[in-house]
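Sample entry was shown:
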Amino acid sequence: GQFIFINSPAEIVPKVGTAMNLVSNMLATNATLTVRGLDGAIVTKIYGHDDLASAVQLGDLRESDIIHTVACVDVSPDGRQASDIVTYELRFEDLESGRVISRRGVVSVQHTDSHEEAQARPDELRLAVTITECGDRDLEVMQQLDSGNREKAISLKEETLAQLREVRHLDADGMVEKLLQFGNQSLEQLKSRAANAEATARKALHY
């Protein structure tokens, strides 16, 4: 599923059209991705997914859609130039047939002694990592708000927006621009609530 926010009456027609297009382009549902280390490699983190023993819930699959799943893997090359490090299984329910379909594969990497090559990231990977890291930080923002640490939450949100701005030029699909738009709105709301809380506290002290 996916949420589409309608902010004004003028947005009803185009956004309903967008929603209908999403439904008509849907190919499968209940998609999951299972990732496992191979040959001594260990999956240490999957962004946005805490339980490494279970499958990642991807939800709906649509035509021409791209879903990024970013994982961290510890690898011991043992002098080899290349190795298979991860096996994955994508399972989904095909809408046309109703059958559960499975697709499996292996991820391989080339090993290098060059620090520069090891640190280099393709633009697509850099963009995906940034978006997933910002998603994790937003969870921390919520935790800080629940703990009453409003100023810390604002600081974390500002860090998120700054990180997204650094990769805005890499995004051809407009996802970063949308995240910045919603993020700026959230930041303004946080600052407004903080200002109102401070004003209320000062008024209480005055009385």
